[in-house]
Amino acid sequence: MKKLNKVLILALIGQAALFNSKLTAQDIHFTMYDAMIITTNPAATGVFDGDFRGVMNYRSQWGSISNPYKTYSIMLDGGLFKNKWKNGYIGAGLNVFKDVAGVTNFGTTKVNLSLSSVVFLDNKNSASVGLMGSWAQNSMSPDKLEWDSQFNGQSFNPSLSSNEQFAFENKNYFDFSAGALWAYGTGAKTLSSQDEFNIKAGLAFYHVTKPDQKMEFGDVDKLYSKLAFHTEAHIGISNTKLALRPKLVTYFQGPTRQISAGFLIRYRLKEESKYTGLSKGAAISFGSYYRVGDAFAPAIELEIASFALGVAYDFNTSGLTAATNGNGGPEIYVRFVSPNPFMSGKGTKSSARFR
To answer: Most buried residue, 52, 60, 195, 303, by CB count within 10 Å?
Structure first.
């Protein structure tokens, strides 16, 4: 029975989003990955059109089966010395997330601190490298486990002794990651043409030291190193209010891999006042994401001045569909950027690159 419960726990924490995978614990993932970008590439810390950014994210998975797998995350980052350094600046960021699964609330709490060095290569190109140090803790509530010895012949009786001899202790470990990012961008040719273009591409290497996540009653469980590649673009269509936003992210972690692509269409609802700022800019994006072999996720994002709200819902397409009836779960994020990113890039010297 002990072995069965361990398998059930691992099954809950295994990421069904990773196809061709074994039942092993993997990293968290987000459908709208670029909203919580530090979890994909530490080199993206501070790389955005503004001085300060704050993001909150909530994700739920597989609630139609049993207790859903829930992830809570918050990210704060910004640029330092932007007004003092001519050819670049330093990005600094903090990301905290917690995920929980099942009746035992098995999960991971992780605190990530990241630093990036951003260099302006020319008027259109920039590059950055980033490092991230992390502290993490695995925890669970073993008193909520159910054992065969607590079955009295007719029903489950939690007051009966489990006759199991183990003392679970929270597992703490440290982790290190690194990444690199390139960005290219051109501004609109005229104030009204709205044909701006930018593209970013990055590569990151997570879990450099392969920390051990061994549980008190388990075997040695090294966290596989993870290689991540991501790219996204903003393509303004000349003399229209439309822009195209294609995205791609891939993860390779031990025997598992994940490929996710997204395509959104952005429509500018309202122009920002160029001088007074009394009229706040607004835009809406709609489209979908697809994780190969796992889920299809329609998404919508609304931007109003400094605030943005994004919502996506996963429809399961993997072998788990038989149990979920196709229902994966919702994801939502709320973002704040200062200064207002609609204000012609006042928060950075290279807004075209970092849009």
So the answer is: 303
- Residues 6 or more apart in contact with residue 237 via CB below 8 angstroms: 194, 195, 243, 244
Q: Are 345 and 49 in contact (CB under 8 A)?
A: yes
Give the span between the Cα atoms of 126 and 217, in whole angstroms: 48
User: In terms of DSSP bridges, do strands 197-206 and 171-186 run parallel, antiparallel, or are they unpaired?
Assistant: antiparallel
What top-level class would CATH report for the domain 2-145+171-354? mainly beta
- Where do the structural domains in the chain lie, given as residue ranges? 2-145+171-354
Q: Which two tokens stand for residue 351?
A: 């807004």
* 120-146 exposure pattern, b = at least 16 Cβ within 10 A, e = fewer: beeebebbbebbbebebebbbebeebe
- Structure tokens that stand for 142 in this block: 């073993």
Q: What is the pLDDT of residues 183-219, one digit of tens each?
A: 999 887 876 778 899 999 999 999 998 887 666 555 5
For residue 43, pLDDT over 70 is answered with: yes
Instruction: Note the pLDDT of residue 187.
Output: 82
Token couple for 327? 């229902």
**Distance separating alpha carbons of residues 145 and 153, to the nearest angstrom:** 18
